[in-house]
Amino acid sequence: MYQAETHGVRVTVSPKFMEAESTPEQGRYFWAYTIEIVNLSERTMQLMTRHWVITDGRGEVHEVRGEGVVGKQPVLQPGESFSYTSGCPLMTPDGSMSGSYAMLGEDGAAFEVEVPLFPLDSPYVKKVLH
Questions:
Q1: Cβ distance 97 to 88 under 8 Å?
Q2: Sign of CA dihedral 106, 80, 82, 64
Q3: Contact yes or no for 95/57 (Cβ under 8 A)
Q4: Band of pLDDT at residue 126, cut at 50, 70 and 90
Q5: Which of 3, 27, 28 is nearest to 15 (CA)?
Q6: Contact 11, 113 (CB under 8 A)
Q7: 6 vs 53: CA distance, rounded Å
Q8: How many Cα atoms occupy the beta-carbon half-sphere of 73 within 13 Å?
Q9: pLDDT given at position 130
Q10: Which of 113, 124, 117 is nearest to 82 (CA)?
Q11: Phi and psi for 37 in degrees, rounded to 5?
Q12: Of residues 49 and 127, which shows the higher confidence score?
């Protein structure tokens, strides 16, 4: 698990390589990741947009921006949490993801919440010992 806390919001990520969804011989590797967002603050807030930075094993960076997560823009009351599972395909057997959520507080103030950097590792990564 990977975790970050920003502006009273805790984001926890659990990535998992999905062997059954991957075809390494065709250069396709797939991960699922489950994210839990917990509102630890005293204010109500809504997740408005997401921004992902996906880096593959070659160091190539791909950015993804969009509204909400999994088709939702959840509202979190103080103490509430929201969890979802999504996925990421890569053409390399490893990589990483990080990002942020744009949140809107009940007072109309917008703020960013960090999604921690997390690895996308598969059993197909060639390990080099030095």
A1: yes
A2: positive
A3: yes
A4: confident
A5: 3
A6: yes
A7: 18
A8: 13
A9: 66
A10: 113
A11: -115, 125
A12: 49
Residue labelled with tokens 């997390």: 118
Q: Enter the tokens of residue 103.
A: 């949140």
* pLDDT tens-place string over residues 51-68: 999 999 999 999 999 999
CA–CA distance, 38 with 77 (Å, rounded to integer) = 9
Give the residue from 97, 78, 101 showing the smallest Cα distance to 88: 97
Tokens standing for residue 97: 């993801």
Average pLDDT over residues 4-33: 97
Q: What is the mean pLDDT of residues 88-98?
A: 97
pTM of this structure: 0.93
In the chain, how long is the greatest CA-to-CA distance? 54
